[in-house]
């Protein structure tokens, strides 16, 4: 409340009802901060020993409470002021921001003088905290029987530990990841309001070790725009086509699971695990060299839907997850599209719902909307065949044109499939193979149902994976390129898109390519390229283990942020063993310039919240 009252001018359209909703949503994040900040206090308070009731011990705990919570309150109050400069809650990178200041102590005391009213507010909070704490009286033990005392204390310790972990994670489901900054997007309609939902201890704790995006200036702003620009200005003079768009993102569908992409494997006998998709590819447009931009599901979704790759930290988990972005959904909504996202997991799993809200998606469909727990796999979500059937039926209810995306769930550890299919899909060379076959079969059923619906013929389908599987079959898929090798498939029922191009494509190319195919006629922001615009040279970019990778033409360049470490002909040298760094200095120089320009555009625009085209 103090944060809002100090910064009302930044929230000019805030209604009382909206403010109350934001405050209530913030309690979820407040709880996480309270538990983290008081972790030591909680542990010391619940130790199953009688000495915890001693006066001296309790006095120590009291001052532990005052110090830790006083510091946390100071962090919150500091953002009453600092928000005006950053327009976002402070994150762990604040230390990095000020590490080069020579007069940090002087600046600190000057801030205390200039913003004395914030200091006064903090002191008032401290007084309230001390008064309320001292109203609590602790004595015990309540039972004189030592056996009962120790047994009950141990049992209560287990219960408190369970509740604490659940509170910190934000839930108790297996699929619930610890909530992070991006989850606040689930509760807002305007990204600026995220700062009201969040609190500063939370944003700092959740970004410790994750704030790797630093401003870089390899080139001047004019030079970097000439080398590489993520702002797209369509030159297409053709009229916009109001085709439906369906994007299918398949969990862990590595390219090596496809028979059609690996015909040379096993001396030409390898069939893969995707017979339906292999048959669909025969009538689709695909690419020989197609790559993911990250290694996690939370890397894949922003890459595919908003053309935002992951560089070191998933966009979801970064301090910049509340930035203004455009996406397939938000851009096509300006053309009258209905937009939706389907994910059969418990609602909010992996932060997808929050991201889709910020990406401008109208309707989210998860396990709650499916509303039949009989089809729950017991761990991750609704079985793929059931949820894809539900998906097809819902698509038939939407007004055209629509843009919809689907994210599968069944190809996850522990690699289970429905009992009814256990005799149909046997475990292959890796545990996930039967799940891949099962989801491939589910897609076959989906397309069979969809093909009978009136919207089908006027639809562009895009099929890709979120990332590769950790279960690699072939050695070359455990390499710098194999770790990111996923399919990218464009299919139209009239087969106007077909063939297999010997080009590079990446997940972040999907959004601009869909817009290019539809002849979208307005400027937009995307880190990828429109593959239908042959004037732009194909490339792919990804990041792993603090190393940047750039694929261009025949080469893969490995770069550590300061210097190039390796150059490989990834098309011929499948195992990435022959470093050509010294043999091709001109290639290294050319690719390093492109690499640096990409990093600069990514880092600086992310930090400056310039991920959209301003009019």
Number of helices: 20
Please give the share of residues in helix: 25-40%
What is the C-alpha radius of gyration, as a whole number of Å?
27 Å
- Main pleated sheet: 6 strands, mixed
The residue-averaged pLDDT reads 92
Alpha carbon gap, first and last residue: 34 Å
Shape summary? globular
Strand content: 5-15%
Strand order of the largest sheet: 5-4-6-2-7-8
Count the strands?
Answer: 14
Low-confidence stretches: none
> What structural class should be given to the helix and strand makeup?
alpha/beta
Describe the structure.
The chain has 615 residues and is an alpha/beta fold. It has helices at residues 2-6, 16-37, 39-45, 55-86, 94-98, 104-114, 116-134, 146-169, 194-197, 200-207, 221-227, 275-281, 297-306, 328-333, 352-358, 367-370, 384-395, 433-450, 510-517, 585-607; strands spanning 231-232, 244-250, 285-291, 338-343, 363-365, 402-407, 459-465, 488-491, 499-506, 524-525, 539-544, 547-552, 555-559, 564-569. The strands form 4 sheets. The chain has a 6-stranded mixed sheet with strand order 5-4-6-2-7-8, with helices on both faces. Strands 11-12-13-14 form a 4-stranded antiparallel sheet, covered by helices on one side. The two termini are 34 Å apart. The model has no long low-confidence stretch (mean pLDDT 92).
């Amino acid at each position: 409340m103090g944060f809002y009252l100090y910064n009302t001018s930044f929230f000019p359209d805030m209604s009382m009802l909206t403010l109350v909703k934001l405050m209530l949503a913030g309690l979820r994040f407040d709880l996480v901060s309270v538990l983290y900040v008081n972790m030591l206090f909680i542990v010391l308070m619940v130790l199953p020993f009688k000495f915890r009731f001693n006066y001296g011990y309790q006095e120590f705990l009291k001052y532990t409470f005052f110090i830790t919570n006083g510091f946390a309150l100071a962090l919150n109050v500091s953002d009453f002021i600092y928000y005006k400069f950053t327009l976002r809650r402070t994150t762990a990178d604040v230390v990095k921001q000020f590490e080069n200041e020579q007069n940090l102590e002087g600046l600190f005391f000057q801030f205390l003088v200039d913003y004395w009213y914030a200091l006064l507010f903090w002191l008032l909070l401290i007084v309230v905290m001390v008064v309320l704490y001292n109203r609590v009286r602790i004595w015990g033990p309540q039972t004189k029987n030592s056996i009962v005392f120790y047994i009950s204390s141990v049992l209560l310790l287990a219960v408190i530990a369970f509740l604490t972990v659940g509170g910190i994670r934000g839930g108790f489901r297996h699929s619930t990841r610890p909530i992070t900054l991006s989850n606040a997007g689930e509760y807002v309609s305007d990204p600026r309001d995220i700062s009201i939902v969040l609190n500063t201890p939370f944003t700092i704790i959740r970004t410790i070790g994750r704030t790797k995006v630093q401003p870089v200036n390899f080139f001047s702003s004019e030079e970097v725009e000439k080398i590489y620009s993520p702002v797209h200005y369509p030159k297409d003079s053709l009229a916009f086509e109001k085709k439906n768009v369906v994007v299918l993102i398949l969990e862990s569908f590595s390219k090596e699971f496809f028979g059609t992409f690996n015909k040379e494997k096993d001396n030409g006998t390898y069939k893969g695990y995707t017979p339906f998709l292999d048959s669909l590819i025969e009538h689709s447009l695909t690419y020989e060299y197609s790559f993911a931009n990250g290694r996690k599901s939370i890397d894949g979704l922003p890459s595919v839907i908003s053309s935002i790759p992951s560089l070191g930290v998933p966009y979801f988990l970064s301090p910049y997850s509340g930035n203004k972005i455009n996406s397939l959904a938000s851009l096509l909504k300006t053309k009258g599209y209905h937009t939706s996202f389907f994910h059969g997991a418990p609602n909010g799993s992996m932060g997808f719902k929050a991201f889709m809200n910020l990406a401008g998606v109208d309707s989210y469909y998860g396990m709650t909307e499916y509303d039949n727990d009989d089809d729950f796999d017991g761990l991750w979500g609704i079985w793929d065949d059931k949820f894809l059937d539900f998906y097809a039926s819902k698509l038939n209810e939407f007004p055209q044109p629509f843009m919809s995306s689907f994210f599968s769930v069944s190809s996850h550890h522990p690699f289970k499939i429905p009992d009814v299919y256990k005799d149909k899909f046997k475990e292959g060379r890796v545990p996930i193979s039967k799940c891949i076959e099962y989801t491939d079969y589910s897609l076959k059923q989906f397309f069979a149902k969809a093909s009978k619906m009136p919207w089908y013929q006027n639809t562009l389908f895009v099929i890709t994976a979120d990332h590769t599987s950790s279960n690699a079959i072939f050695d070359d898929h455990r390499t710098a390129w194999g770790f990111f090798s996923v399919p990218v498939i464009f299919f139209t029922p009239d087969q106007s898109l077909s063939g297999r191009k010997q080009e590079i494509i990446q997940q972040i190319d999907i959004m601009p390519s869909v817009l290019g195919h539809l002849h979208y006629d307005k400027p937009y922001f995307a880190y990828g390229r429109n593959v239908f615009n042959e004037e732009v040279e194909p490339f792919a970019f990804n990041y792993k283990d603090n190393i940047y990778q750039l694929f261009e033409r025949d080469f893969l360049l490995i770069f550590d942020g300061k210097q190039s470490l390796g150059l490989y002909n990834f098309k011929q040298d499948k195992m990435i063993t022959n470093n050509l760094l010294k043999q091709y200095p001109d290639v290294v120089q050319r690719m390093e310039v492109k690499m640096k320009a990409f990093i600069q555009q990514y880092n600086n625009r992310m930090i400056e919240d310039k991920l959209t085209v301003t009019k």
